[in-house]
Specification:
single chain, 392 residues, mainly beta
């Protein structure tokens, strides 16, 4: 019964928005517009210290990556906006192409209805990171130069044992899962969002094979536990943001629930966070994410991330720290050591971003991480990365 009610609420919100959109005048004033954007980046990394140093023949290397995004949009006479996005991420020789965004949306005075593979509402309203806000203003838009939310694990850092939002890492959700999402318009600084996802996958793109995501013709599981983690996921969140004398304050909260499948535990997560971007150029944020239960274990895991950043002209400098603590027997293990049952995790980053020319940015980051386990060897690493990103 709970599943039916939750499904009804989410579908009613989405179809309500669609009905409002259909009632609008659809006389098109112009044709569809296509925008192509993305970035291409180069990275050089140096491992300064690592628990597994003895297993490496070389402590430095290069890497390249890219993103390609296609946005289609049109606006009717009445102001109804509709469009779609396809985003190809991890465009490189190793990964080939990862398609992590494919969705259609309708936007108007009723809000935004998103249908397809888009970020979860709990990710939209559960993510608070000042460095990322300032990073976006420089026009980087890349996973490199993104502090603790970036890809520093290429040269240092182990499994992701901290959470910026309740979908990140530990939670086991994936923006590639197919969903129906509604996001409200802003009113007096407030906005909210809610979504429904039938199946949430791990290593696969859940939502493309219909009911066969879970069952084959004999009624037995079609895929392994690593492939499908949850079903009937409902997430939502609320935000307040306003600007006072040139300074912007943002407060966010989110929650999500889902049923574990194929022997996995249920999903239950919450978050609270706040951010201040001061008119002087300083910005700070703090975000708390609490997992009551994840696919890994029915144990409490708490993650707190904080960031202090400063932006002036063409550069941004940031200092970030993430701390995670977990109850005993949480099932979090290290793929880099024999460590089992995560006790605490410490991750820190120092980032410097600089715009060399329009569209051309450079970054340098120093990152540190330590995983502490109740059983087995801990993991510790320090790495330095630098590179350039061409955004278009």
């Amino acid at each position: 019964m709970r599943k039916v009610l939750l499904l009804g609420v989410c579908l009613a919100a989405a179809t309500g928005g669609i009905s409002a959109a259909q009632a609008a005048d659809t006389n098109v004033t112009s044709g569809l517009s296509l925008k192509i954007s993305g970035w291409i980046g180069f990275l050089a990394g140096l491992s300064l210290s690592n628990t597994d140093d003895d297993s490496f023949d070389r402590d430095y290397d290069f890497a390249s990556n890219a993103r390609l995004q296609f946005d289609v949009k049109n606006v009717t006479d009445s102001g109804l906006e509709y469009g779609a996005r396809i985003r190809m991420n991890n465009v490189d020789r190793r990964n080939d192409v990862t398609v992590d965004r494919t969705y259609v949306y309708l936007k108007g005075s009723f809000g935004i209805v998103t249908l397809g593979d888009a970020p979860y509402a709990i990710g939209d309203f559960g993510y608070v990171y000042a460095h990322d806000t300032l990073n976006g203003k420089l026009g980087f838009g890349a996973g490199w130069g993104d502090g603790l939310d970036g890809k520093f694990s290429l040269f240092g850092g182990s499994d992701t044992f901290y959470a910026f939002d309740p979908t990140y890492g530990i939670g086991g959700l994936n923006g590639k899962d197919t969903k129906v999402k509604y996001t409200s318009p802003g009113f007096s600084g407030f906005s909210f969002g809610i979504d429904f996802t039938p199946v949430a996958g791990g290593n696969i793109h859940a939502g493309n094979t219909g009911r066969n995501d879970l069952f084959n013709n004999n009624g037995t599981p079609l895929v392994s536990n690593d492939d499908v983690r949850y079903e009937n996921i409902v997430t939502g969140g609320v935000q307040y943001t306003d600007t006072f004398d040139g300074s912007t304050v943002t407060l966010r909260g989110s929650a999500g629930t889902g049923n574990g499948v194929s022997g996995n535990h249920d999903y239950e997560a919450y978050s609270l966070g706040g951010q201040l971007v001061h008119a002087s150029g300083f910005a700070a944020s703090v975000n708390w994410v609490h997992f009551s239960s994840t696919f890994r274990a029915d144990k409490a895991i708490d993650s707190i991330t904080g960031d202090l950043s400063y932006a002036s002209g063409p550069y941004v400098i940031s200092l970030g720290y993430a701390y995670t603590t977990a109850e005993k027997n949480n099932g979090l293990e290290s793929s880099f050591t024999d460590g089992e049952d995560l006790k605490t995790n410490h991750s820190a980053s120092l980032s410097f971003l600089y715009n060399l020319a329009p569209g051309l940015g450079s970054f340098t980051e120093l990152v540190y991480e330590k995983n502490e386990f109740r059983i087995g060897q801990d993991y510790e690493s320090t790495a330095l990365t630098t590179g350039v990103v061409l955004a278009f």
